[in-house]
Write a structure and sequence with these properties.
heterodimer; A: 231 residues; mainly beta; Protocatechuate 3,4-Dioxygenase, subunit A; 4-stranded antiparallel β-sheet; 6% helix; 25% strand; globular; B: 188 residues; 9-stranded mixed β-sheet; 10 strands
């Protein structure tokens, strides 16, 4: 079956310009997007016959000689389309700070400890039910230069390609109950009525006693399957 | 209402994503890849004309015969196995990016006629809240005059999508996020 792409309704994605988010001031386009009918170029996209993604890529606690400092968490969920159907065999990439709130990245000069046992990146392929699962540690919160005394809530970055160029998604996943949500311009950039979609749920059923907590985070990408009898 | 997950900014620390990438790098060609090798280079600019040195640029294009490795292309069996069509690059300290790729072949449009040769370009960065994407075309291509998408753009902005041939044979394509010569961005 072929895939169709209803237009993205307003009120879902963060607006390009958000006053409280200083970075958007000089980087948001001022012209509206031009709507075009998608061609085969937009309706295709990189979908790889991914061969083995090894255990170390889904397990961010086992990428170095020792275990990273921090609370072990299972981060799992499903990737779905707008019909609620699973998207199998699709790539999910994540990156995050370590438990102290420091990224293993040259540009991050926050005065917090680097962890030699944590790089903070992972890759997974969804299974036939659209499920992915990472083992990682709880990322720390960190200051950023948006305004005086600005701090980012704990979050994990997600990047998905999906079945076509149009399904590309990059987003940030937050954790429930973080007091910094109230002050974060990036969190508040997400329209209020859909903000719950970027917050993971604590998942007691998926925790492993004496070993790891767990959070569930589902992602919904653009596209629905065309029905056999037309759209 | 649709259950779509909202986009959010890629932030400044995504370079972890482009390091050691098995599928998306800035070099799309190997010895076995068919087609004319080209380099596409440019600078990503902000609304003050300053370079964006923490940007993520991705490209998606057809192979030399105009095919895509994808279930949506009826001719995918003939797509070049040595060409993924997908590239990814971080802008450097001068806001520059460069892709080594091949000139894409002609891709059919909805009416069965050929589109002009084009490359889809995605841009993300700190301060860019969702993805901005556009289509890069090639200067001097006769088919630009009959492309189905170009006429949908106001004529005074069409030039922002045309890559110019430089003296060294590379194609120059700058992306301007905001300002006087703001690049046309699409939605579909």
């Amino acid at each position: 079956m072929s895939r169709i792409y209803p237009p993205v309704p307003p009120g879902i994605h963060s607006p390009d310009f958000f006053e409280a988010n200083r970075g958007t001031h000089l980087r948001h386009p001022k012209h509206p997007r031009i709507v075009i009918p998608p061609t085969i170029s937009e309706l295709t996209g990189p979908v790889y016959p991914y061969s083995a993604i090894g255990g170390a890529e889904t397990d961010l606690t086992r990428q170095h000689a020792g275990q990273p400092i921090g609370e072990r968490i299972i981060l799992h969920g499903r990737v779905l389309d707008e019909d609620g159907r699973p998207i199998p065999q699709t790539l999910v990439e994540i990156w995050q700070a370590n438990a102290a709130g420091r990224y293993a990245h040259g540009v991050d000069n926050h005065d917090a400890a680097l962890d030699p046992n944590f790089s903070g990146t992972g890759r997974a392929i969804t299974d036939d039910e659209g499920r992915y699962r990472f083992l990682t540690i709880m990322p720390g919160r960190y200051p950023f230069q948006n305004h005086y005394n600005a701090w980012r809530p704990a979050h994990v970055h997600f990047s998905l390609l999906g079945p076509s160029f149009l399904t590309r998604l990059v987003t940030q996943m937050f954790f429930p109950g973080d007091p910094l949500h109230a002050f974060d311009p990036i969190f508040h950039g997400v329209p209020e009525q859909v903000r719950h979609r970027v917050v993971a749920s604590f998942d007691l059923d998926a925790t492993v006693p004496d070993w790891s907590l767990a959070f569930r985070f589902d992602l919904v990408l653009r596209g629905r399957e065309a029905t056999p009898f037309g759209i | 209402m649709s259950d779509l997950t909202p986009f959010s900014t890629v932030g400044p620390f995504f370079k972890l994503l482009v390091r050691n990438r098995a599928e998306g790098t800035d070099c799309l060609v190997s010895d076995a890849t068919r087609g004319d090798r080209i380099t596409v280079r440019g600078v990503l600019f902000d609304g003050n004309g300053a370079p964006v040195n923490d940007g993520l640029v991705e490209i998606w294009q057809a192979d030399a015969s105009g095919h895509y490795h994808h279930p949506g292309d009826a001719d995918r069996e003939t797509a070049d196995p040595a060409f993924s069509g997908f590239g990814r690059a971080a802008t450097d300290s001068a806001g520059s990016f460069a892709f080594r790729t091949i000139k894409p072949g002609l891709v059919r449009g909805a009416d069965g006629q050929s589109q002009a040769p084009h490359i889809l370009v995605s841009v993300m960065a700190r301060g860019v809240m969702s993805r901005c994407w556009t289509r890069m075309y090639f200067d001097g291509e006769p088919l630009n005059g009959s492309d189905p998408i170009l006429p949908l753009i106001p004529i005074e902005r069409r030039q922002t999508l045309i890559a110019r041939r430089a003296a060294d044979g590379s194609y120059e394509f700058n992306v301007v996020l905001q300002g006087e010569r703001e690049t046309v961005f699409f939605e579909a």
